[in-house]
Amino acid sequence: MKNIPEYFGSLVFDDRVMKANLSDEVYRSLKKTIDEGARLDSKLADAVAGAMKDWAVSHGATHFTHWFQPLTGVTAEKHDSFIEKAPDGRVIMEFSGKELIQGEPDASSFPSGGLRATFEARGYTAWDPTSYAFIKDSTLYIPTAFCSYGGDALDKKTPLLRSMAALNVQAKRILKLFGQDDVKWVHTYVGPEQEYFLVDREMYNRRKDLIFTGRTLFGAKPPKGQEMDDHYFGTIKPRVKEFMEELNEELWKLGIFAKTEHNEVAPAQHELAPIFTTANQATDHNQLTMEVMQKVASRHGLVCLLHEKPFAGVNGSGKHNNWSIATDNGTNLLKPGETPHENAQFLLFLCAVIQAVDDYQDLLRLSVATAGNDHRLGANEAPPAVVSIFLGDELTAVLDAIETDAPYSGSEKKQLKLGVDVLPRFFRDTTDRNRTSPFAFTGNKFEFRMLGSSNSIACANIMLNSAVAESLRQYADELEKAENFESALHDLIQKVIREHKRIIFNGNGYDDAWIREATEKRGLLNLRTTPDCMPHLLDEKNVKMLTAHKVFSEAELRSRCEIMLENYCKTVNIEGLTMVSMTKKEILPAMEAYVGELASGAVAKKNVDPDLDCGYEKSLLRSLSALMLQIHNAADELEKALVHLKTLSGVEETAFAIRDGILPKMATLRVAADEAETLTAAKFWPFPTYEELLFGVR
Ligand code: ADP
Ligand code: MG
Q1: Does residue 444 have its Cβ closer than 6 Å to ligand 1?
Q2: 281 C-beta closer than 6 A to ligand 1
Q3: Ligand 1 atom closest to Cα of 323?
Q4: Distance of CA 464 to CAs 91, 363, 390, 600, Å?
Q5: Domains, the chain, ranges and CATH?
Q6: Does the predicted model carry a pTM greater than 0.90?
C-alpha cells in the first residue's frame, strides 16, 4: 500500500469510477445532478444503482447502507445485504434504483424534538448524489439526507444542502451584476482542521469518566503541563506516528484528502487537516475522519479523545472551519483580485461576510454551542464567546479609507473611489497569526475558530452560508435596481462598512479589556454558555432569515432548539452522575484505605516505641479526614441537585438549573477531590492520574 495516487479513493464511487462504469448518457445526467442540483431522472437511477452494486461487489462488498447524520451528533446506518432470492432457490446480488434513492430506516428512536409526533411517525432517507458513495467494512455507504414524511429535516445534511443552495442563488445574482453571466454554480468550500488527544487504552479503561463522558471529571494538575511549549510541532512519538500512518492510509482509500498532521499545544494533543472540498463533502468527510480516528486508535492500543475539554488546565480541542466561496470556473470570490474590477467584486463579498457575522453573531455562536465547548470558549485558550472578525491591518486600512473617502495609504497611495475603474490593487495580508480571533480572514478564506472538536461542522456552515446569502440578497435587491451601478456599489460598500465595522477587531481576543469593549462600547453579544445562546435560535430576526431562505421551517427550528438544549442537559446530567459514582465507589474508599494504613502505621510505631513522633501521620490524617467529609458532603449535594432536576418542567428551565446549580456543585466536588489526590499515596489512588494519561503514550 505505498503508491498513494494509485490507492487514493480506491474505495470511492467517484467521478473516475462513474465515467468508467456508466453509459455516456447516464454519466452526463448524473453529473448535471451533482454539479447543478438538477433532478436525476428516476429511470437512470436503476442504471446508476446497478453500476454501483457491481463495482461494490467487485471490491468485496456484501451489504449496502444509507448513511445519515441525525441530530445525535454521530452518523447512523442500517445495513442490508444485496442478496435477493433467485427462482432456482439460490441468491443473486441485486440493488435497485429505488433502493439507492430512498430508504426507510426505523426512525422512531432518533431525536426529532417533537417533529415526528406532530407529523408522521416514520422517516426516510434520500440519496445525496453530491457526496460520493464509498465502501467501508464490506458495505457500500450511500450518503443520504434524513427527513420525516412531512418533509421536515431530521438531520444536519438537509439544511446544509439548503443553505448551500441559498448562497448559490444569491451569489449568482451578484455575479451577474458584475457581468458574470456564465457562472453555473457557486459553492462553499471548507477545510476543517481537526484536533484530538490520544491516550493509552489500558489507562482509559480504568477511568469511568473518560468512558462515560469523554472527559476527565477529576484530576490534579501534573507537575508539568503545556507551559514549556515543547509539544507544539514537536517530534511525533513512534507509536503516534504509526497511528497517523495507518489513519492516513484509511482516509486516503476513502478519498479523504488528509494532508497535514502535527503535535498540538497540549501534551498528547494532535491535529489533522485535510485539503478543502465542498462544504457538503467536507462535512461527510469530517464525520468519517472522526470515526476512522477512533477505530485506528484502538488498533494501536490507544483511545482518540474528541471531547472539547478532556483535561482541565491544559488546552482543549477545537476545529478550525476554513471557509470560502468559489464558482464552477474556479474563481475564489474571497480572493483579492488582480484588477480594480475584481477587487470591487471581492470587496462586496467581503462586506457580505462582515455584515453576516455582525447581524447573525448569535446564530454563529449557537451553531457551536455544546456542553463540551462551553469549557473552551472564553477560557483563554480558544476564542472568546464574543464573535468578532480579524481582517488584518492592510484590509482594515482599505476599509477605513473607503469609509471616509480618505486617501488610502496602502500599496498604492491614492484616493479610493469605489467606482469600479479606480479601485487600486492591494496585496493580500497573509500575515495572520492572530490565533485569538473567532473569525479570521486568512488571505483568501475565513477561518471560523469557535467550533468544538467533536461538533459536526454542518451547523456552523449552515449558519454561515445562510447569513451570507442574506447579506447578498439585500445587496442584489438594491443593486439590481440601481441606475448607476458603480456609484450605488460605492455607496453600498461604504454604508456596510459604517454600519458593521464594530464587528472588526484585530487585537488580542483573550484580553479581558476586549470583552469589556466589545460588550459595553460596541454592543456585541457575549453569550457564554449553551443555555444563554440556544434560545436565540428562535429570535424573530433569525426565524425570519432562515425561513426566508428555506433553510429551516419554523417547526424545524423549534425542534432543533429543544434537541440542542436536551443534549446539553443530558450531557451534564451524565457527568454529574458519573462524578457521584466515582466519588462513592472509588475515591472515598481509596482514601479510607490509605487513612487506615496511615493510622495502623502510627499505631505500629507507638507499639515499637511510645516516644516515637507521629506528627506526620496525625497531620495528614487530619487533612484527609476533613477532605473526606468535604467530598462526601459535596457529592451528596450534587446528587440531591441532580434528583431535583427531574422535578423541573421545561428543558430551558432545566438547562439554566444545570448552568447555575449543577456545574458549580461539580466544580466544588472536584476541587476537594483533586486536593485529596495530591495527598493520597499513589498506589491507593483508584485511577490513572493526569501525569500518566498525558505523558503515558510513548
Ligand atoms: P494554517 O491555518 O494552519 O496556516 P492553511 O491556511 O494552509 O493552514 O490551511 C488550513 C486549512 O484551510 C486546510 O484544511 C486547507 O485545505 C484549508 N483551505 C485552504 N484554502 C482554502 C479555501 N480557499 N477554502 C477553504 N479552505 C481552504
Ligand atoms: Mg488554520
Answers
A1: yes
A2: no
A3: 25
A4: 49, 8, 16, 65
A5: 4-155 (3.10.20.70), 163-552 (3.30.590.10), 568-695 (1.20.120.1560)
A6: yes
